[in-house]
Amino acid sequence: MAHISFLTVYQHNDKIRLGANKDGGYVFGDNIGDYDCYISAGVSDEESFSRDFIKKYGMNKTQCYAFDATIEDYPYEYTKDITFIKKNIGPEQTDTTTNLKEYNEKYNNIFLKMDIEGGEYSWLDSLNETDLTHYKQISIEFHGINDNSWNNSHQTKVNCLKKLANTHYLIHAHGNNWAGARYINNSIIPDVIELTYIRKDILKNPFFNTTALPIENLDFKNNIHNNEISLNHPPFRF
User: Fold this and answer.
1) What is the DSSP letter of 10?
2) If DSSP codes are grouped into helix, strand and coil, which group holds residue 54?
3) What backbone torsions phi and psi does residue 72 show, to the nearest 5 degrees?
4) DSSP letter at 193?
5) DSSP-assigned letter for residue 211
6) Do residues 40 and 62 make contact, with C-beta atoms less than 8 angstroms apart?
7) Please, which pLDDT band fits residue 186 given cuts at 50, 70 and 90?
8) 17 neighbors 30 (Cβ within 8 angstroms)
9) Residue 36 — pLDDT band, cuts 50, 70, 90?
10) Of 30, 69, 73, 209, which is the most exposed, with the fewest CB atoms less than 10 Å away?
11) What percent of the chain shows pLDDT beyond 90?
12) What pLDDT is stored for residue 185 in this prediction?
């Protein structure tokens, strides 16, 4: 299917994990400089990654923002160095949603952590590639990438993955084992997948990933009762 070519992972040897060693933690590229903004899109009740990221980079609430209209307030036991905005991420700016464009215009090196239960597609679909270049690194969970589920057509999902591939290199992939996976063109493709992207100007002379995925002691099961989804094959590993 068309989306497989846009899931090609590139080698990045300096990766770390922050947050819990379960659902809520993310793997990303380290030692690529600082960030002028941190955005947590989708909070629920687990913000261990935000806590660790903000502490690591010495950021404060004037630079850090959390968005989620499904909760009453931010779980401040994780960190108080963040500004909570009770809005969901979407394609438009309304009283209850934000498309984040005001942050794109204000900041140039944003770290975005996003898990918004399928809403990632309408948001990405509303952006142009110039908007995306303001995001230095993105850790994002994509839902239902293999079909028309999660209220989005498969073609819309392909278009979003293609747009990101134009501006960023995919440096890490981890299958969420709460969901299933499918055999497509002799590859196992998770239905729900955590992906980390680095802006193309940051990663020089990229080459295809040769590291086995998932990575022991860096990746951890989202659901401790299910087996990990092996990604030791193209397009994730070559």
Assistant:
1) B
2) helix
3) -80, -35
4) E
5) S
6) no
7) confident
8) no
9) very high
10) 73
11) 96
12) 87
User: Using the 8-state DSSP alphabet, how is residue 62 labeled?
Assistant: T
> What is the token pair recorded at 35?
């960030």
Cα separation, 97 vs 88, in Å, equals 5
Nearest to 195 by CA among 233, 164, 158: 164
Token reading at 23: 């659902």
d(CA 16, CA 30) in angstroms, rounded, equals 6
Give the per-residue pLDDT at 133.
97
Dihedral (CA of 165, 167, 172, 173) sign: negative
And the tokens for 229?
Answer: 């989804």
* Tens-place pLDDT, residues 133-146: 999 999 999 999 99
**Alpha-carbon dihedral 87, 93, 99, 102, rounded to 10 degrees:** -100
Burial class (CB in 10 A: 0-12, 13-18, 19+), 14: exposed
- Does an H or E element contain 4, and which? none
User: Measured in whole angstroms, how far is the alpha carbon of residue 134 from the centre of its chain?
Assistant: 15
Dig out the tokens for 128 from the structure: 């142009």
Q: Is the whole model's pTM more than 0.90, yes or no?
A: yes
CA distance 50 to 8: 27
